[in-house]
Amino acid sequence: MLKPVFLLVISITTYLLSFGQSSDTIHRRPLQTEDTDDRTFVKAEVMPTLLNGPAALEDTLTRLLRQQHSTFEKGTSLFSLIIDKTGNIDAVSKQGVNNGTTPFEKDVVEALVKTAGMWVPASESGEKVNCYKFIYIEFSKRSLKVTERQ
């Protein structure tokens, strides 16, 4: 008899704790909560941006990848970057492929890492924070295009 009552109390408590949270609050919750200095936000009040704009990233990636590949295979890939509080890149990973392939994924990741220092860090409540940045890279035979995922 106590087990069903206990489960009912747990269910009601869980419901009450989750009630009233807006989707904005949920999206702004950091991924890590142990230490406030090491939190990595998925969404911040001010998201990380490039110092010289998206065109500078496209130019840099094209230049770096052309050193190793004369042409690209057509396709679109999603990459995630963690931009730290100083504007450097803490991590880069490929999240998926929308269409086509990216056979030189390792080279793309290395090129993205070389963009460290080109970023203005994110901020939350006026303080610089670590934050994810998601970008699509669309490859055509001779060029690429970078689009930020919102």
Report on this model:
The chain is α+β, with helices and mostly antiparallel strands and 150 residues long. It has a single domain, classed as Fusion Protein Consisting Of Minor Coat Protein, Glycine Rich Linker, Tola, And A His Tag, Chain: A, Domain 2 (2-Layer Sandwich), CATH 3.30.1150. The chain is 30% helix and 32% strand. The chain has four helices and eight strands; from the N terminus they run H-H-E-E-H-E-E-H-E-E-E-E. The strands form two sheets. Strands 1, 3, 4, 6, 7 and 8 form a six-stranded mixed sheet that branches. Strand 7 and strand 8 form a beta hairpin. The N and C termini lie far apart (50 Å). About 21% of the residues have low confidence.
- Indicate the percent of residues in helices: 25-40%
Q: What is the mean pLDDT?
A: 75
Shape annotation = elongated
| Rg calc | 20 Å
Poorly predicted regions: 5-36
Q: Characterize the largest beta sheet: strand count, sense, and whether it forms a barrel.
A: 6 strands, mixed
Explain the layout of strands and helices:
Elements: H1 2-18, H2 23-28, E1 40-41, E2 49-50, H3 54-66, E3 75-83, E4 89-100, H4 105-113, E5 119-120, E6 122-124, E7 127-139, E8 144-148
Parallel strand pairs: 1-7
Antiparallel strand pairs: 2-5, 3-4, 3-7, 6-7, 7-8
In short:
With 150 residues, the chain is an alpha+beta fold. The protein has 4 helices and 8 strands, in the order ααββαββαββββ. The protein has one domain: 2-Layer Sandwich (Fusion Protein Consisting Of Minor Coat Protein, Glycine Rich Linker, Tola, And A His Tag, Chain: A, Domain 2), CATH 3.30.1150.
